[in-house]
Write a structure and sequence with these properties.
Number of helices: 11
CATH architecture of the largest domain: 2-Layer Sandwich
Number of strands: 12
Largest sheet: 5 strands, mixed
Pfam family, one: HATPase_c
Low-confidence stretches: 458-478
Number of domains: 3
Order of helices and strands: HHEEEHEEHHHEHEEHEEHHEEH
GO molecular function, one term: ATP binding
EC number: 2.7.13.3
Oligomer: single chain
Shape: rod-shaped
CATH topology of the largest domain: Heat Shock Protein 90
Keywords: ATP-binding, Coiled coil, Kinase, Membrane, Nucleotide-binding, Phosphoprotein, Transferase, Transmembrane, Transmembrane helix, Two-component regulatory system
Organism: Aquicoccus porphyridii
Mean pLDDT: 79
Distance between the termini: 59 Å
Structural class: alpha+beta
């Protein structure tokens, strides 16, 4: 009950109504005290008028008049003359005097609270104006015990009435809140659970029906979100099916092209001039087709595995990449430069980082050889307080505008004719898996530069506690 919206609203309503009744109770009890004292003054005035009618009143009758008025004595001022009209012995001296003629609301409240807080029986003097202008003032002496008892009785009745009003009000508000808010919210929650069970079923998208403006807006927003999510899931499913088909086709086509590549090796040995002229083009075409199939298969995986972080001596890794590319240069005029500190050790997945650097260096080499002119490829690295920075620069012709526009987008960011753009897309994904960034610093006729920024320590966004534990073990072994 306490954990539900309606239950908490019920309890808060009772509390707030009771607080409101308490704020009403204090001035009410002060008003009751004032009325009580005024009634005593009125009774005393009536008793004194009986004495004015007959100066020779019997002492027994005088005592009865005072007893009925609830006072000990009555002083009435008429025509500027103060006259003790009725009197009887008082059990104790007067404790305090209260003048009701000009009492403010705060004064009445203060005196009422003080009377409730004082349980001792006292004798007080009360001064007021006679009713119907029967004199200048009237003054009585009386006990406080009957006054306090009447005030307590009145207060208890007010509190009981307040409690009943609070419960009834809270119950009515509870039912209203359940009908207006809780039930519509539960309906929305139930619909969300129903939609979550099968988000691709468009029939489960919510239909806004709430009459409350705020709830209607929430339902409209939820409908828009569910509509977009359903469409995205359907598109993802279609793309997944298409990707699966492409992967299967690429796998079979790669096998076919690999066999064809073996035959082209023999064709190149032919002495026929026409064959010698066309064979290199055929070999290049088949090689590009095989490379496209392999990169498509690599990119077609659901996602790259999480990086297995370990301490890597960067100079050795860069040396392996450069050595591999030197073999692929052949007769082309391409030189390589390495500016990596020998002792620079970084925290990364060596296989994934090798793939990133290999893709960047290979792209640079292909750009230079494709231009028909010589050039240089340089790999440099350094570190600052928060990152390891690796740069790959070349003096090639630069990236074409289309490649720059879709630089890290698969199948759209190819920098050369026949290229798929998968190398940069895969590289960017691998760097992001390390919590870093792959950036294009500049490109143009003078060359191109890429920068890899890998975070040091715990700043990597993608590093979990498990990866940190692996890192610690790798660090101990290195």
């Amino acid at each position: 009950m306490l954990n539900t919206l309606s239950g908490r609203f019920l309890i808060l309503t009772i509390i707030f109504v009771m607080l409101a009744e308490v704020l009403i109770f204090v001035p009410s009890i002060a008003r009751f005290r004032e009325d009580f004292l005024l009634s005593r003054l009125e009774r005393a005035q009536i008793a004194s008028l009986a004495l004015l009618a007959d100066d020779m009143i019997d002492p027994g009758l005088e005592e009865e008049l005072l007893r009925n008025a609830g006072v000990f004595n009555v002083v009435l001022r008429r025509n500027e003359a103060r006259q003790l009209m009725l009197s009887s012995p008082m059990p104790q001296p007067v404790h305090q005097t209260y003048d009701l003629r000009a009492a403010t609301a705060m004064t009445l409240i203060r005196d009422a609270v003080a009377r409730l807080a004082d349980p001792e029986p006292r004798v007080i003097r009360v001064i007021g104006n006679p009713v119907r202008e029967a004199g200048l003032l009237i003054e009585v002496s009386m006990e406080t015990a009957p006054l306090r008892a009447a005030m307590i009785d009145y207060g208890l009745r007010i509190l009981v009435l307040s409690a009943v009003i609070s419960v009834i009000t809270a119950a009515l508000l509870f039912l209203a809140v359940r009908a207006i808010l809780v039930k519509p919210i539960k309906r929305v929650v139930a619909q969300m659970q129903r939609y979550a069970a099968d988000p691709e079923d468009s029939r489960r998208i919510i239909t806004p029906t709430a009459g409350v403006v705020e709830l209607r807006e929430a339902e409209e927003a939820l409908k828009s979100l569910e509509t977009q999510l359903t469409a995205a899931l359907k598109q993802k499913e279609r793309l997944a099916q298409l990707g699966g088909a492409v992967a299967k086709i690429s796998h079979d086509l790669r096998n076919i092209l690999t066999s064809a590549q073996l035959f082209t090796d023999r064709i190149e040995m032919s002495e026929d001039p026409a064959v010698q002229r066309l064979a290199p083009k055929l070999v290049n075409s088949i090689t590009r087709a095989v490379n496209l199939c392999e990169t498509t298969l690599a990119f077609g995986k659901a996602e790259e595995p999480e990086p297995r972080l370990s301490r890597v001596i960067l100079a050795e890794l860069v040396g392996d990449v450069v050595a591999s590319e030197r073999l692929a240069v052949g007769e082309a005029d391409v030189s390589f430069a390495e500016d990596v500190p020998a002792g620079l050790t970084i925290l990364a997945d060596p296989e994934q980082l090798y793939r990133v650097l290999f893709n960047l260096v290979r792209n640079a080499r292909q750009a230079i050889t494709g231009s028909g002119q010589g050039g240089e490829i340089a790999v440099a690295a350094y570190e600052d307080d928060s990152h390891w920075i690796i740069t790959v620069t070349d003096t090639g012709p630069g990236l074409p505008p289309k490649a720059q526009e879709h630089l890290f987008t698969a199948f759209q960011g190819g920098a050369r004719k026949g290229g798929s753009g998968l190398g940069l897309a895969i590289s960017a994904e691998l760097v992001r898996g390390h919590g870093g960034k792959l950036l294009l610093e500049y490109t143009g006729p003078g060359g191109t530069a890429f920068t890899i920024r890998l975070p040091r320590g715990e700043s990597g966004a993608g590093w979990s506690e498990g990866a940190e534990a692996v890192n610690g073990v790798a660090a101990e072994k290195s």
